Amino acid sequence: MRLAPRFTLAACALAYTRSVLGALYVINPTAQGVCVGGQPCHVQWLDDGQEPLLTTMGPCYVTLYAGNQRIVQRIEPVDVSTTHSLTFTPSPNAGPDSDTYYIAFASIKSSNSSQPLQAFSTYFSSVHFSMPLTFAC
After folding, report:
1. Which interval of the chain is the signal sequence (predicted)?
2. How are beta strands 41-47 and 34-36 bridged, if at all?
3. Higher confidence at residue 45 or residue 15?
4. CA 16/CA 2 separation, integer angstroms
């Protein structure tokens, strides 16, 4: 009987998370991918066909993060409904070599309640950074 409350809590958390996250599915970089500081890094995504569609997400802020939501670098916004890739150059001064970098997309105009529609890449590696992790906004 003790499992029921935990299961209910987990199901509610999953339902809430799914309602806030967009249907944007990042296919590059992958968990085995590496972006090199000072060199172009290619980011590519698909629409997974589930609501909300990329047409609902529309223009998005794009940010490079490390670890637990530490902003490393802001990337030029992109309309994910009309473009399915972008290339940016990670700043070589943005942080240390690590395998905990990820890309976040946050819809500029669309939200679910008070939260913007969001999507995230998997963690990937970034190497050849020349400085400790800093906020490079």
Report:
1. 1-22
2. unpaired
3. 45
4. 22
